Amino acid sequence: MSNFAGDGLTGTQGTVASDAAIAREVRRRRTFAIISHPDAGKTTLTEKLLLFGGAIQMAGTVKARKSGRHATSDWLEIEKQRGISVASSVMQFTYDDCVINLLDTPGHQDFSEDTYRVLTAVDAAVMVVDAAKGVEEQTIKLLEVCRLRNTPIITFINKMDREVRDPLEVLDEIESVLKIKCAPVTWPIGMGKRFQGVYHLLNDEVMRFTPGEAKADQEVEVLQGSQIDQLARQCPSEMQTMRDETELVGGAGASFDLHEFLLGQQTPVFFGSGINNFGVREVLRALVDWAPSPLPRETDVRVVQPTEAAFTGFVFKIQANMDPNHRDRIAFLRVCSGRYSSGMKVKHRRTGKEMKLANAVTFMANERMRMDEAYAGDIIGVHNHGQLQIGDVLTGGEALTFKGIPYFAPELFSRARLRDPMKAKQLQKGLRQLGEEGAVQVFEPLLDSTPLIGAVGQLQFEVVEHRLKSEYGVDAVFERAGIHTARWVTCPDTMHLNEFVKANQSRLAHDADGNYAYLADTGVNLRLTMERWPKVQFHATREHGQRL
Ligand code: G4P
Predict the structure, then answer these.
(1) Which long-range contacts (C-beta less than 8 Å, at least 24 apart) are formed by 10-18?
(2) Which of 206, 314, 354, 532 is a Cys-bridge partner for 402, taking CB atoms 3.0 to 4.6 Å apart?
(3) Mean pLDDT to the nearest integer, 67-83
(4) What's the mean pLDDT in 419-440?
(5) Which residue has its alpha carbon closest to ligand 1 atom 14?
(6) What is the pLDDT of residue 7?
């Protein structure tokens, strides 16, 4: 967006920003996602963060976009009508001279593949935990993904205005279940109706809690020294418990260590109440003060530094029909180095073709905005009609591919049966395009012409069925295929691989990139096949665009 054009940068096409100017812009950037189990408070926190950043004026803007969690049918209707995920996009705002990119992730677990890919595009994550529930299933899965890249995690323990679990117990659970050390930065004083606020362990001050949604951050009362003693006289039991507990955690030696945080080994923990906008500012400060600016990225040939002058970026998400008035697809590209300027020409690594990048957009709540320039860490939305796929790399000219954008082996399989056999071509086209978007994975069995559709969650099928009908005019019914899981197979010995293919033709399929996938009907079948063919490798993940 033009509002942060730095000096030393010229906005016209083809000009190169000075190294110092790029370095300065990179230093200001923070790119993160919020991860949580549904209902822990992700949407609420997103909204409060945007309020702080001045990105929205009114509470309720983000919430309004959120699909009804409790009315799955309503939600599905919206999702179906507008493509996979209404609620998932990218928001940029400035806070304390930092440019913050917040990448939203779909809350529903059936779209977890989409979430995994979003996590490859961030440099940090905020984990929201419901203080009453502790660590929940979806959080465990998401944290596993963060761990693959050692993503630094900031923890927000939410809903302290309710009767919740003992904070020590919740911390213990995070440490034992998620295998990450906790360093409490704030500690709650009471909870529920007796919630008085939090004690800031590093600043030795108390932030007083007063319930009320509309409260701005400067209204939070901060107590120091004798004022804290006075509070201790007012609510001796809560203050004493807080002192005992902080002594206990302090004794366990869990003080905040920036280095360990950056390695993803320790998480600073904040307590608060998102809905009351309490404790949110501290999370934002942690992002600004501690979270890393855009990190170097590994490629197949070398490590790309964010401050390099040459432009590089990769597509981590494709979204169709963001807006019913614009029936196009938007590829979300994470800039990894250099500077994007409107109208610049880049090389599309997969096809080797030159592409002109014009009219990239960014998103704010419901609206899209034109983006004139972008640096490492920023996400730009590129309109396209199918040229860009997930995992695609755009560069100033260099031939390189970023690593680590995974496909996961599907756990659910269906066959699309056409109601009108004349529509086979459209079905093929629709499935190919939806596969490229990452909405589902499409496999072509070696011995059967009916494509197999793989997904991680059932809702993916329902959305694809709906989109085939509305966008491609294809009326197809999805029938469950009796397949337990898929494994991509490779073998350095081509002769041996050919033998394997010959012997297992009925269970093999090609994926969209032409790789062999073994489709096991049961877990036992997979195990026995693996035992029978020890020289063949079976992979549960593969990288986008990768020819194994
Ligand atoms: P999610 O995106 O992680 O799914 O969660 P979301 O923010 O939508 O929050 C889930 C529910 O928890 C919402 O209530 C929300 O108002 C509530 N909530 C969030 N933060 C807090 C908090 O700090 N304290 C309390 N007491 N509640 C909180 P809901 O009734 O499901 O929805 P709504 O009617 O409030 O919209």
Answers:
(1) 11/341, 11/342, 11/372, 11/373, 12/341, 13/341, 13/342, 13/343, 13/344, 14/341, 14/344, 15/341, 16/309, 16/339, 17/309, 17/339
(2) 314
(3) 42
(4) 88
(5) 39
(6) 34
Q: Amino acid letter at 314?
A: F
Residue nearest to atom 36 of ligand 1 (CA): 63
Say yes or no: CB of residue 107 within 6 Å of ligand 1: yes
Ligand 1 atom closest to 45 (CA) = 7
CA dist 179 and 18 (Å) reads: 43
Cβ(530)–Cβ(519) under 8 Å? no
Closest CA to 117 of 365, 414, 332, 267: 332
Is any atom of ligand 1 closer than 6 Å to the C-beta of 136? no
**pTM for this model (two decimals):** 0.84
Q: Can you tell me the distance from the alpha carbon of 32 to that of 30, in angstroms, rounded to the nearest whole number?
A: 7
Domains and CATH numbers, the chain: 33-87+123-289 (3.40.50.300), 297-395 (3.40.50.300), 406-543 (3.30.70.3280)
Task: For ligand 1, say whether the CB of 67 is within 6 Å of any of its atoms.
Answer: no
- For residue 37 and ligand 1, the question of a CB distance below 6 A is answered with no
Measured CA to CA in angstroms, residue 104 lies from 48, 89, 90, 431 at distances of 14, 5, 6, 26
**Pocket residue to mutate for ligand 1, from 275, 277, 280, most atoms within 8 A of Cβ:** 275
Residue-wise pLDDT tens digits, 136-165: 988 888 888 888 889 999 999 999 999 999
d(CA 44, ligand 1 centre) in Å: 6
Residue 428's identity, in one-letter code, is Q
